[in-house]
Amino acid sequence: IEDAKAAGIQYVYDDGTFGAARFDGSAPVLGLFEASHMQYEADRSGEPSLAEMTEAAIKALQGNENGFFLTVEAGRVDHANHAGNLARVVRDGVAFAEAVARADELTDDADTLIIVTADHEHAIAFSGYAGRGSDILGLSMKIDPAGTKALNEPNMAQDGKPYTTVTYLNGGGSILTEDQDWTGTRPTVSQEEATDLDYVQQALIPLSSETHSGEDVAIYAKGPFAHLMGGTVEQNYIFHVMHHAATAE
Ligand SMILES: [Zn+2]
User: In this predicted structure, what is the pLDDT of residue 8?
Assistant: First the structure.
């Protein structure tokens, strides 16, 4: 940090210093807001949002006559999934969507390729015939006879207990626990418990941390050479599209 400051780099570490920095390309900015990962969006205090950092980075870079390359990662979606804590997953997912929207507003499709993707999926499942309008964080609710809206009556599993709209295949929320000799009796869950910020969704295989999975992930793209994205591709293909877009005459 001292070396950076001596070299004329602006050092920012909280909301205040971030707000006071110049993002006009006149001096580089080093932002270190935490000793490790930044806070979850649901808990964020004293730190800029992902959308705010995205805006600052674009404004600092877009004066470069040779263009720029920017990577923005919403890395804590992954951590909340590892914790099996869907409430924080979706809040960080919304923060990511807001960052993408801000990047889109600040750039021109005529000269900027935007690619949105993920580096892997998780052992997360959105299943169980939740009626339209069921809370994504809450219990899977029955659908009315016309099939148009969720009733305030949960779907019941064969053990006579409700289940949530989203569950995990593995992780800390496993219904099998050591104190039951890993045999397990599935705990019942109420709508109030399921929608709590700290609730850990039920899972099957007991693991201290929920895992990544091998599902294909989506690649969204717009701008120059976005047409090269489509179908099923290996991940290294993405690099070649970015490289082609950045070096094309
Ligand atoms: Zn991970």
Answer: 97
* Distance from Cα 220 to the centre of ligand 1, integer Å: 21
What is the arithmetic mean of pLDDT over 32-39? 97
From the CA of 46, how far away is ligand 1's center (Å)? 25
Q: How far is the CA of 66 from the centre of ligand 1 (A)?
A: 34
CATH architecture of the region 2-119+218-247:
3-Layer(aba) Sandwich (3.40)
The neighbouring-strand residues paired with 135 are none
Domain residue extents for the chain: 2-119+218-247
Query: Ligand 1 centroid vs 36 CA: distance in angstroms?
Result: 15
This prediction has a pTM of 0.94
Q: Measured between alpha carbons, how far is 102 from 116 in angstroms, rounded to an integer?
A: 13
Residue-wise pLDDT for 40-56, tens only, equals 999 999 999 999 999 99
Ligand 1 center to 3 CA (angstroms): 32
C-alpha distances (whole Å) from 175 to each of 84, 180, 181, 186 are: 13, 10, 12, 5
